[in-house]
Amino acid sequence: MTIETSTETSTGTSPARIESAAHDAHDAALARACRKAAWRIIPLVTIAYFFANLDRVNLSFAKLQMQEALKFSDVTYGIGAGLFAWGALLFQMPASLAVSRLGARRYLFLALVAWGTISALTMFTSSIASFYSLRFLLGVAEIGFFPAIVLYFSRWFPAERQSRIMSMFFLAMPLSVVFGGPLTGLIMDRFDAVAGLGGWQWAFLLEGVPAVLLGFAMLSIRERHADAPWLTQAEKQALDYALTQSTPTQAKRKISRAADALRHPLLWIFVTICFCFNLGNFGLMFWLPTLVHQASQGSNMHTALLAAIPYALGALAMVVNGFSAPREGVRLRSGLPALVGGAALAASVLVSSSVWASLILTSIAVAGGMATLSMFWSLPGRVFSDSAVATCAGMINMAAGLAFFSGPVVMGVLKQWTGGVSTGIVMLAASLSLAGLLLLLLPRRLIQDV
């Protein structure tokens, strides 16, 4: 016994030390694998999502010229802005099935090429019918993009890292306003009447073409980590273990069959939260440039720069919230920002006569919404397994599509009915606050332990 003890002490090969060393080696290999994957995947898909959002929201800036040129009413504009959602709603499930069948890589290629082409063709809008048709088709083209991304991330990053990854990915949304808004305003001001085209037409063309090019770039990504030549065997094994075997209790709790997931009440709670959150988020995103323009009476470029301020702060809030504690407090970090954001948005109505006061409160509202966004979309991967997550993400995303339609339309109707925007802003604030409250009321075990 004395000899054995001496041998263990001198060689340091006790079972406990061996297990500790193996655990440390696993953690190091997993960290390297996730870091490599993040550097190779996140920039490309984030840029793609940037243009996806830009192709959606550039309509809110193009409206400043487009509505006058085509003589569209606020209701017509609101319906056209939201018809994107009807294409999404009708084709969400076929798109989700196509994602599962084709894989994320091939589907992302097809989606980017299709929506970039359709967005560019919006420059030829000349009537209400063509406007509505192109917006509907854009929704059909884009709707499978997000479920494909959720599925793709679930194959590359463990659940406890999802909030960080999502926060980096979702940076594309506020940045599409921070940079895309001024870019659209600049194009509209500088290219107006060039070659006989309006500035808004040039904006659709020049911002649609990059999506097509990014579609071909998507063919360079790997579908699964096992196929990545830039990962070592140890890194692949560590990532595979983290994704499938490291937490057997969690794996047992996850819902693996799509049919079971569709019957599970948690899915429909997520759907409700997603609708409420996005009703406030998209409604504000589409109407913010108009509200800022009416208050400041500035140029298109000046309006875009002012409207970018809330989303710059939103991008910062998203990163801070996503990186602060990816393993703990997910419920609080999901619900509280939306609740605070809704209260700030409601308060902005009381100071609407002051451009800067209302802009500060709107910035808090946008920051709250953006901080919630990445945390919320890390939840499906905690509850649903790889085989069910694409279908569930598609169902949840349908609620976002419905809100995408409802927010701008309701704002347009209320503005035309009341002659102002205060009623619509309060409605958006209430919806955002309700989403935050529902997130705070989610079962603690589900959010932190699943």
From TrEMBL:
Lineage of origin: Bacteria, Pseudomonadati, Pseudomonadota, Betaproteobacteria, Burkholderiales
Record keywords: Membrane, Transmembrane, Transmembrane helix, Transport
PROSITE patterns reported for this sequence: MFS
GO molecular function: transmembrane transporter activity
Top-level taxon: Bacteria
Keyword Cytoplasm attached: no
GO cellular component annotations of the record: plasma membrane
Major facilitator superfamily (MFS) profile domain residues: 41-448
Species, as recorded: Paraburkholderia caffeinitolerans
Membrane topology classification: Multi-pass membrane protein
Pfam family, one: MFS_1
Keyword Transmembrane helix (UniProt): yes
Ranges annotated as spanning the membrane: 37-55, 75-95, 107-128, 134-153, 165-188, 200-221, 266-288, 300-320, 332-350, 356-377, 389-414, 420-442
Signal sequence, start to end: none
Subcellular location, record wording: Membrane
Gene3D superfamilies given in the database record: MFS general substrate transporter like domains
Protein name (database record): Metabolite transport protein NicT
